[in-house]
Amino acid sequence: MKRTIRSAGGAALLAIAACMPAAATAASYPERPITWIVPYPPGGTTDVVARNIAQAMSGNLGVSIVVENKAGAGGQIAMAAVARAKPDGYTLLVSDASLATAPSLYKNMQIDPFKDLQAVCLFVTVPHVLVVTPTVKASSLSELIALTRQSSGKINFGSGGVGSPLHLAGAALQMETGMEWTHIPYKGAGPAIMAAISGEVKVATPSLPAALPQIAAGKLRPLAVTSYKRVATLPDVATIGELGYPKATAFGWVGLHAPAGTPADAIQRLEDAAGKTMDDPDLAKRLQAQGADIMFERRSGYGKLVSEEAVRWQGVVKTLGLTPQ
């Protein structure tokens, strides 16, 4: 009997010992710098927001966060780089709305973002804003709708390219309100905004951070924000929902995704650190000044958002008759 007890005890000790490396790994993550990969060039909204959050979150994790830019192919280069990285929590994707729109816009993607990546958390949402050049004789959405109908398609609309967030946001608004604009795609959001400022196009739906300086300078006139609620930087500008078109609500976002198979304890550690970081009032103030709205969600909530938006934009792309490239 004693021998049996010793054997059972020895087996238990071996089992405990076998679990110790995993437990030690969970307790020690992270042990070295973490890399965040941004799918756009430096200086854009996603990049600026990510760098602000990375700086604050590194203190809560106890390690530095290195932000790298891997731009190109509508975000696919960055997505693939992260999906193929070792799933250990040290290489993460700064994810945005392209994660939801890319499957509808590109037919030969290198990866499946819903199988090869997993949600970590959502940091902020970034609304678009409907703007017109000051020469347009419309000071409200209703006036723009009336003017558009009178103009018989002569009002042109600038975007950052076919299938870009600016294009899809404007398309959703047109579909909901019945307005018909002539679409003029540019090579990026920057040129599209400059075209609106110069009067080359009459209407645009840029992201709020990109439009704020031009609105403040009086070079663009805001008619509505496409967020669910009003934004602190433009408190007098109504939401598209308040104006009667809630289905035209459109927004970008900034969050984190990890390679599929990343250990749950690493994801949990990142979630907890992100939650603490986004509670920082100074960080919130900086992000709001840039046009971003704090909207922290853990992995389940963020994953649901991306899936729902993918279905929604698939419908918009189909209605527009866009052929996946």
TrEMBL record:
Key word Kinase present: no
Family recorded in the similarity comment: Belongs to the UPF0065 (bug) family.
Record's keyword annotation contains ATP-binding: no
Lineage: Bacteria, Pseudomonadati, Pseudomonadota, Betaproteobacteria, Burkholderiales
Name the UniProt record assigns to this protein: Tripartite-type tricarboxylate transporter, receptor component TctC
Residues annotated as signal peptide: 1-26
One Pfam assignment: TctC
Keywords: Receptor, Signal
